[in-house]
Amino acid sequence: MRKIFLFLFLIPLFSAAAIPESSDVISEHAIEQATSQESNEESPFLIEREDAKQAAATAAATITSVNKLYPPRHSISKQIANFCKHLAGVMESSLSKIPVLRVTVEPALFSAAENSELSVTLKITNDKKDLIMFHFPTNQRLEIVVTDDQKKILSRWSQDRSFDPADDTVVINPKESIFYTEKISTIGMQDGKTYTIEVSLVNQPEYTISTTVTPQAEGVNRSFLKATEDPSTKDKGLLPF
Q1: Do 240 and 102 contact (CB within 8 A), yes or no?
Q2: What is the pTM of this model?
Q3: CB 202 within 8 A of CB 145
Q4: What beta strand segments (E) does the chain contain?
Q5: What are the tens digits of pLDDT across the range 31-58?
Q6: Does the first or last residue of the chain, that is N or C, have fewer Cβ atoms within 10 Å of its Cβ?
Q7: Is residue 63 part of a domain?
Q8: 139 and 207, same structural domain?
Q9: Residues 6 or more apart from 28 whose CB is under 8 A from it?
Q10: What does the alpha-carbon distance between residue 132 and residue 3 come to, in Å, rounded to a whole number?
């Protein structure tokens, strides 16, 4: 009787010793069968069942990672369209922060031979609900450039001028305005020809506005002539005084 029992006990051991260890993944059927049975600490197959449970846990984790959901990705054209839309919004927001600019030239009617200087005034009105701030690195506030009808620069106001270093900040409250006035020379201008006067705020290139003047000699009917704003700025809602 003892010999029979010993023989039955040794059969599985010899079988396990005869079969080389496999590196293959345990099949799902084997995992289900092994894990569905109740573990018995006295069973010689306890270790195999524990390995099966561990394999089942690893398989479950692997399946979850494989089936992980990723957000859908738009096509290239869709991404480009969204980027352009965003860029347009940023530009529109930036432009909306520019206050109302107006420029005047005095005298509006003049003769280049009679008037050696013109007074150019830039008016900046804060039509927004928030404060507007300007920073100036020097005591210069305006830059004024005069060009002829061929776009040739006739004069630049800052040329041959020196400016003191500064660290100034100017604040405009809502519904308020500030004025900057400088004088320019009419040297080089001729009566009967049209010239463009471009006025910009120093260190603020987006704050630029242009107007045109046409000097006329005395005796010529000048009642219909006046300093008019560059038509290209009318689309921006920038109107003369």
Answers
A1: yes
A2: 0.54
A3: no
A4: 100-106, 117-125, 132-138, 142-147, 153-156, 165-172, 177-185, 195-201, 204-213, 228-229
A5: 566 555 555 555 555 555 566 667 666 7
A6: N
A7: yes
A8: yes
A9: 59
A10: 104
Using one digit for the tens of pLDDT, what is the confidence trace for 9-37? 555 544 544 445 544 555 666 556 655 55
Alpha-carbon distances of 131 from 14, 103, 125, 126, 138, rounded to whole Å: 91, 22, 11, 8, 22
Is residue 79 situated within a structural domain?
no
pLDDT in tens, 142-175: 999 999 999 999 999 999 999 999 889 999 999 9
**SS3 for 120?**
strand
Contact (Cβ atoms closer than 8 angstroms) between residue 199 and residue 208 = yes
Domains contained in the chain, number: 2
Cis amide leading into 107 (omega within 30): yes
The Cα 6–Cα 94 span in angstroms is 92
**Rounded distance between C-alpha atoms, residue 102 and residue 230, angstroms:** 11
CB 174 within 8 A of CB 126: yes
> Cβ distance 127 to 101 under 8 Å?
no
Closest CA to 134 of 167, 171, 180, 177: 171
Tokens of 77: 């054209």
What percentage of residues in the chain have a pLDDT greater than 90? Answer: 45
- Are 92 and 228 a contacting pair, CB within 8 Å? no
Q: What angle do helix axes 46-66 and 28-36 make, rounded to 10 degrees?
A: 130
Q: Are 189 and 116 in contact, with CB atoms under 8 Å apart?
A: no
Q: Give me the sign of the Cα torsion angle 16, 20, 23, 29.
A: negative
- Give the domain range for residue 40: 21-67
Is there a contact between 99 and 209 (Cβ–Cβ < 8 Å)?
no
Domain presence at residue 116: yes
Q: Which residues does 115 contact at the CB level (< 8 Å), separation at least 6?
A: 107, 186, 215
